[in-house]
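Weekly sync notes, structure subgroup
Attendees: PM, AL, DS (notes)

Item 1: joint prediction request from the bench team. They want all two components modeled as one assembly rather than separately. Inputs as received:
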Amino acid sequence: MSPMGPQLKFNADGLLPAVAQDGATREVLMLAWMDQEALRRTLATGRATYWSRSRGEYWVKGETSGHTQAVESVRLDCDGDTILLRVRQEGAACHTGNRTCFFTELRDGDVA
Amino acid sequence: MSPMGPQLKFNADGLLPAVAQDGATREVLMLAWMDQEALRRTLATGRATYWSRSRGEYWVKGETSGHTQAVESVRLDCDGDTILLRVRQEGAACHTGNRTCFFTELRDGDVA
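Output from the run, pasted for the record:
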C-alpha cells in the first residue's frame, strides 16, 4: 500500500460494488454497494457493512435477519473500483432464503 | 424462467456488473460490465464478452491478450441486476499479469 493509502475509484454516486464470497466454500454469495464510510466500517468492525441504495442508509448485513457476514478479508481490484470480501456467512445470504443470490441460470436465447 | 424471459435491471447507463469466477478453483477473477448485447453475445458464443466503459466498445475477453474466458455458466442474481459467470480462464485474468484482479488486501486503517 502506498503511504497515501489505496487509490479508491468510487463511481459518480460515491459507491463501489462489493462482491461477497463464502470464505470456506468459495461460493459467490451476493453483490452490494459500499461508500467510503461503509468500507471503513467494514474494515474497522469486521462486519460486512453496505450502503443500501434503495433505503439510503448503512446496512450492517444480518442486523435484522441474523444472517451476518463476519469478514475474513477485504481485497481491492487492480483499478481500485471493486471490492471482494471473503466472509463467514451465517445462514442465507439472499433475502429469498437461498444461500446465494445467484440461483437463476441463464441460457442462450434467454436474452434477446 | 418466465415466458417473458428474465427481468434484467440495467443501470442508468444500460449496464450490469458481471463477476467472473474460475469454474475450477472458484477464485473470483474480475468484475466487468455488460449491456444487453454483451450478455446476449456471451450466452450465444460461450465467450465472455463485456462492454468496455473506457473504450466504448465490446470487448471479447482475451481477444488480443489470448487470456480468454470460456463460459461454463451464466447466472443472474435475485434482483436481476448482477451477473455471475463461471469461466475456464486461460492465463491471467488481470491485465497486470496476476491471475486475479483482486491481489491487494485492505486492512483496518487503510481507508480513512
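Discussion: The helical segments of chain B are 36-45.
Action: AL to compare against the crosslinking data before next sync.
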